[in-house]
Predict the structure.
Amino acid sequence: MHTHRVESEPDLGVLAVRVLFSVQRELFTALVEQGFDDIQPRAGAVLAHLRADGIRASELACASGQRKQVIGSLIDDLERLGYVERRPDPADRRAKLICPTERGLLQMEAATSIMRAIEERHANARGEREYAAFKTALHHVADLRRQAD
């Protein structure tokens, strides 16, 4: 039996990947232009959720949806590159906080500025209300999966 694919609207997964890759490509191209040419897009699982005052690896895993082992490997890479350092957590000496270094803070500022410009461009193209509704819908879709976990 021969089956052929019927042309239809892309599904949620395809659309999500398109948005992710488009934003990642623009973000990391701009970061390279600003001197942050040693990090890979996969590091975004850590960098996107990093806080100036530090965050535990377990929280990074939860926020990014990645396994703890993946996050640990990314942290190791970023530590070797000089973007983060592990420090004792004052709230629990057994735990470590992942804290941005000076270079890490500079990267965070650059990424925030780049992402703001990307979002402003999309909001201007679609209209503020439509873009806000789009982001709200994305939040709801993402939160449904988290609630199921």
Q: What stands out?
A: The longest strand covers residues 92-100. The first helix runs from residue 12 to 33. The mean pLDDT is 92. Helices lie at 12-33, 44-47, 57-64, 68-81, 102-126, 128-148.
